[in-house]
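Feature request, filed as a ticket because there's no other form

It would be nice if the structure record came with a short human-readable summary line next to the tokens. Right now we just get the raw output. Example of a typical job, pasted below so the devs can see what we mean:
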Amino acid sequence: MGVVCPKTPDILMTIIPNFLYLALESMDMKQLQSKLIILLPFPKIYRYSIVSIVLFFMLNQAQASKLDSLSFYLQKHKLQLGVSASTNIAYRTLFSNYPGYNNELVMQIYDEAEKPKLGYSASINLVFLASKHLSIETGIGYFNMGYKHTPEIIFEDPIDPNRNPILPAQMGPNITKLVIRYYYHYLNIPIVVNYAWGKNKLSYSVSAGINPSFLIDQINTMRTKYDDGSRDRVRVVVTKDFNALNLFPSLGVGFCYKLTPTSNIRLEPTFQYGVLKTIDAPISEHLWSGGLRMGYYFGGR
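Raw output as currently delivered:
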């Protein structure tokens, strides 16, 4: 279904080319999203984050008349609605639950073999504007945490069998590349305090909070490449062995740019650290991630 656009706001002229905006009149949003994703010169995960925020902003402008009542309600109650997404470097910190169990040597082996992986998050946010500088933010979101492993020798882990899925021995000589990724998918409820200061349209901000997070699933994926050029992928779900709850304190420092009197965008480097262990095993881990968070908010001042 086509979308009829109002007069182009000046800010859009600095975000996307004219032809993309005018294309809204002749294509549906799914088609436009696919074209934007192809054209933007960013890595794939950044493209999806940027496109989602841009489209949210464009739809907000295109449907401005329908949002008048919602905007009035938000301003009256000093509230803002928003969407945000981030791309992160995700990893873990190991610790021993049972000292003296040769765990230090095993942890050293893990640290040499396991590396950070790309993670991401997305959320829908509700912000209460407590004062000119202070706001409290909550909502519902999604975390993708974890790490990866590129082993030289394939073996069953004697401490935690879930850590290295078993490959048949005869496959070993034919393997040219093997990457195992450990994914932790969380549903989280952020509770964040923001402090902002600045003049005119640009302001700076710091944030701190806690993210109670509930494990959706823990999945190990194993991607294998063979010397004959063939590839395969094995997916193992081991959620039942892992703790369902985690807490991720977060810190962020960034800036906010006011697009209109009732809308703004935010760009904020953030860091999250899981204070609870992921599994009851001789060796467990604290997950963490750091990256760049982008958001669009409207309502309130």
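Something like this underneath would help us a lot:
Residues 1-62 form one domain.
Residues 1-27, 166-173 have pLDDT under 50 and may be disordered.
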